Amino acid sequence: MSENSLRQEEEQLREQIAELSNEQKKRYYALEVAQVKDPDTYAALNWAFLAGLHHFYLGKWQRGLLNLTLMFMGGLLYFSHLLPLLGGGMVLLVFIIELPQLFNSQKIIHHYNNQLMKKLLKEVSSSL
Fold first, then answer.
1. CA pair distance 120, 21, nearest whole angstrom
2. Which CA distances in Å does 89 have to 45, 71, 83, 94, 96?
3. Taking every pair of C-alpha atoms in the chain, what is the biggest distance, in angstroms?
4. From the centroid of its chain, how far is CA 3?
């Protein structure tokens, strides 16, 4: 998704939130503030720890564990001198896969937060 389409989607969601009753808005914002994610935190986790910690931040445990395992095994193979080319290749593969996510962190988190807003709107609208 483009940044423009993400902004438009967010604006539409904000308009729907504005139509909620005061009680629903209070509940919505209480849920949102506890779950919304910060793009700078995501980018910092990705930059500092390319091992996949940013996936854990978004609740993507399987992807995070896969990256962490590949980085650990790659480092182990590389530094133990058993299969240094394979180990280095594993680390490089994770780096190549994760690098675009670093540069797209704003969009990734914007999309995540929009999806969260949709989910919370649905939850709050159906509960009262």
1. 14
2. 22, 10, 10, 9, 10
3. 64
4. 16
Tokens 């969601």 belong to: 13
For the chain, domain boundaries: 3-127
C-alpha pair distances (Å), 104 with each of 3, 39, 40, 42, 92: 10, 9, 11, 10, 19
Would you state the structure tokens that stand for residue 39, as one six-digit string?
């793009």
Which of 7, 4, 91, 103 shows the shortest CA–CA distance to 54? Answer: 103
From residue 122, give the alpha-carbon distance in Å to each of 8, 17, 67, 118, 119.
Answer: 19, 10, 33, 6, 5
Give the model confidence (pLDDT) of 14-54 as tens digits. Answer: 999 999 999 999 999 999 999 999 999 998 888 876 678 89
